Give the backbone structure.
Amino acid sequence: MTPSLRDPGPALAPFALSPLDRSSFVPYYRQIADQVRRLIQSRKIPVGRALWSEGEVAKRLGVSKMTVRQAFAVLRAEGLLVVEKGRLPRAGLGRVVKNFQELRGFTEEMERRGVTVFSRLLGVSLILPDPETSRALKLQPGEPVYRIRRLRFADNQVVGIETASLSAHLFPGLDQQDLEHKSLYHILETVYGVSLAYSEEVLQAVPADGEEVRLLKVKRGFPLFSMRRKVYTLENQPIEWTHSLFRGDRYSASVVSHRK
């Protein structure tokens, strides 16, 4: 009987994998991926902790290194495993899935999914907007906006940067609100009496460059998920223009399409 994997030492995550079911129709790599996924999602393998190498797992489970590589590839695609050259694989946060069928802010979306979230306020400033922002919000010439920049975290892992612009005329004193601990949409609805209706998003993949390299703790060129969002009221008035940059290994989009 193939022995189970035991704690490899204090430098690695303490975990155990059961022997593979040799009579099952489920491929070995799927069995391995399923077990490791459960351990990471249950936090028995904490995020950031190292696991055994492909070769060590293969040796202990009695399978080929290629089989383990396939299992690790599945977990990497899900954001549950981080593999970097010259380092042991580490447990990842998993991708935060954004549902574009419903209008929710980051905090609302993640809390609904049972993810622990918090934000770090990078700054709030009263500025004259660039032409793109003015057009998006249909502002009058010279009309200022509040620019709100926040660093987003999910389960204590940095996920992305959000930069939101809102009319200072429509939302006086917005910079005095608790934008670090409260949902922006909650503030707009309860403090300013705004009825949010729908949004438009433009999505694309971009390489990390500039300040986001430091803030998101990635290397230059790392794939980021870029989202530009315009939010409208029930009266079809645009009131928020936001640019978000999320780590490609920790964020993904979910869209349901219907054939007509």
